[in-house]
Fold these 2 entries.
Entry 1:
Amino acid sequence: MTTTRRPIVAGNWKMNTTVPEATVLAAAVRKAVDGVHGVEVVVCPPAVSLVPVHAVLDGSDVGLGAQDAYFEATGAHTGEVSVEMLASAGATYVIAGHSERRARFGDTDDWVSRKVRAILSGRLVPIMCVGETLDEHDAGQTDAVVTRQVRAGMAGIGAHEALGVVVAYEPVWAIGTGRPATPEGANETCGTIRAVVADLFGAAVAEAIRIQYGGSVTPANATSLFAQPHIDGALVGGASLVAANFGAVVSAAAARHG
Ligand code: PEP
């Protein structure tokens, strides 16, 4: 199957890097992906480093993303950051519904939906994460879980807005464990997600929307993951903290789609 979908590889630095470390890493990523074409590349540093990393990336093709956003625009929400604030810091992507936020910080399906809508309203690109836990996986509930999460997360948006969403399929049991999903298994679930999108928004949107895989992606497994027809790139955690590794994952995506 050939696809015209442009792959997108995003690095989620999570709660790693001080401000000086983030600028050094960003500069190294910029260098590592220089000359690689055909892939949308994004780095998502901690919020305090968005402004300095934006300056480091200025003039490059590397996009800047935030790891989360609150859905309200302003007000008494101590500790939270709005989409407008993130945009003013230079972010053009925002992760929504990462499993660590869902598990540890109380993000519900409803909150993820409100965040996705707020991100779209701010004209930024949501990277909406979905994925089942190990218990759900073992109980054979993967399709049911991702179907629920995709339907809930995309509730209240139109087909045109859906085109601007990137979905990241991230099985929770694969994140940070060194135990990725098999390429075939990841592809099957990404196909399920695409079918849900088709049901919600029609075949053309489903064909165009980008679905990343995330969970222990490394240079060693990226090529086989990206060979799968429904996988349009990756959301990368641990491997994105080493510029050479992240660059190799980006190159793998370029090789498949180039
Ligand atoms: C993530 O947290 O989004 C992730 C995929 O992490 P890792 O690549 O480390 O599994």
Entry 2:
Amino acid sequence: MSSRVEALLAQMTLEEKVAQMVQIPYAQMGRKEALAWARRGAGSFLHVLGDDAREVQQAALHTRLGIPVLFGIDAVRGHALNDHATIFPSPLACACGWDPALTREMGRVTAREVSADGLHWTFAPLLCLSRDTRWGRVDETFGEDPFLTGELAAAMIEGLQGDDLAAPESIAACAKHYLAYGEATGARDAYDSSVTCRKVREVFLPPFKRAVEAGCATFMTAYGAVDGTPLTADGHMLRDILRDELGFDGFVVTDWANVTSLVTRQHVAADAEEASLLAAQAGNDMMMNSPEFYECALRLVREGRLSEAVIDGAVRHILGVKERMGLFERPEKPENPGCIGCEAHQQAALDAARRSVTLLKNDGVLPLSGVRRLAVIGGNADDIRAQYGDWTYFTHPTPSAKHPPVRPYTTIREGLEALARERSVACNYAYGCGPLPSERDDLDAAVSLAREADAIVLVVGDEIRQFGEGKDRADLALSGRQAALFDRLRALGIPLVTVLLASKPLALERVAEASDALLAAFNGGAHGGQAVAEVLFGEVNPSGRLPISFPRHSGQVPVYYNQLPGWHDGQYCDLPATPLFAFGEGLSYTAFAYDSLTFDARTLTASVRVANTGSRAGRETVQVYFRDEVSSVLTPVKTLIAFAQVELAPGEAREVVFHLRREAFSLVNREERRVVEPGSFVLMAGHSSRDEDLLSVRFTLEG
Ligand code: BGC
């Protein structure tokens, strides 16, 4: 630990140290109280912008030791709580790009805009896995797979933090929510996760390990519990595993009111003091919105119930990050409002949106050609709030929450109208219905408008009242009157393209079967509408791949691809075992063919040839999976271990080579150790996780 941090620590009173461990929510606390906390030396504030933040920082700098305050914000998909910032696709949509470079760029732009606003730290990326998609926060994740999540999260962290965390345009990242938060029982947000420590190590820990390797400055403790122990009180997870085993050297912040919740929600502590003791001893360094921790911790140390060494350890971690961020030299980030929402950043968001569009079915109707009259139907075709999704200035209590939406943005309707105009296609819009019933619903009007068209684009999905924290769904079927609207449009017999603008995969089996084409757009951000229009009209060749599987029915969830093997082919008596759309799937306007898969078990080098056999240039995501044929514990039917993208001209072929590490073939054994068990394995490579899309070779690994 640095001498500056040690010197500072030596000068600090117990009160000053404990105050560093407190994070104050500005909006909830109000200005007066917040400033009092700044004068007391609170280590961090969240959700405060502009002049308010500057005032708080000045108050902190004028305290006895003048330790700068760290400002945190949820910049989950761009700096989107600021109404003028660049709004990117949701992390789930971004993950459809399967492209770390794209995700890194999203992180870079986010960091520039957050720091241009004078802030230091974002509570992102989210590394939870969306395996039970009834969960309300699927949109914030990179999907269902540990490996893909880890790769994209690491790229995001690199983008946010840059090469040097102290650089003016770098901000600290936060790997959250540690741990297994997405696996809550029944997908009810923040409930217990009924998984063992072995399972944690096998499935949920690997992305967080990647985050440590990527140098992530902070981690956030999840709300929930693993195997009955709240993460906030879990010293094994926080100290033994995160600190000692993974070597994490930043600081750990709790999630919102986690300490309070040990008493009020989880009932593992009788009062605030006991909760504070548990949280500090378990290894939480900073307590988000549990201000009672301050008085409690002081009492606990004074009464000899909590060792001051525990407090010192936490403060060391916090000051260490502040030092690494250059806060002592430059507590205030140089403001640069001109960069917020600038042209170049909007372009980056448009690129990400284009890459996120995933074509799931196409009977030949796309790209639209020869269409003279296009009907665009559906509330979500023209609703920027639904297109944005969660964690923007509309969804959280920011000063601009009540403003009308700020341009630039393009809804799907607007995107299609613009491209139709260029092509002299008549393009008409009818609302029909939105995801939830409202007075605007008018199915008759939509059907009569559609009747006059020679192609229909119907946009269905969900809206913000159906997802986000505490908004888990029991039913993933199309809500409101959307299914009825679909049926009536389908009955017209006119080519019908369905676009899913939603926070997550919905159960769309019938819609998928009966549509001529189906596209997943998820929450595409400010330029999602333009991206969808460009794909529909063929200006952009879609290259999105699903980072998550689609169920046929809510009752089939979880339907993730890397299932463990069992009896009866894994099927229900009333549903096939396969998902509606599998992890890794996604079509293109061209076609790709694979051959010549080889694997050298000595050098662990895989190679496969992929050719563009269609008539357009396109981008293919080559995916590599493996299966352990005989193992001491159950291992998944397949596991993603590598992927790469190639852009191929028509007729072009390329050999794609992967250098794998032996650890890629490991499992977590009954002793909770990650080991490679020698024996026979299968390596698979191809277009998606579906068996039909994969070539395979068997190989043996020696001891
Ligand atoms: C969420 C976190 C978020 C925090 C601060 C909590 O409700 O679970 O993901 O970072 O609030 O806004």
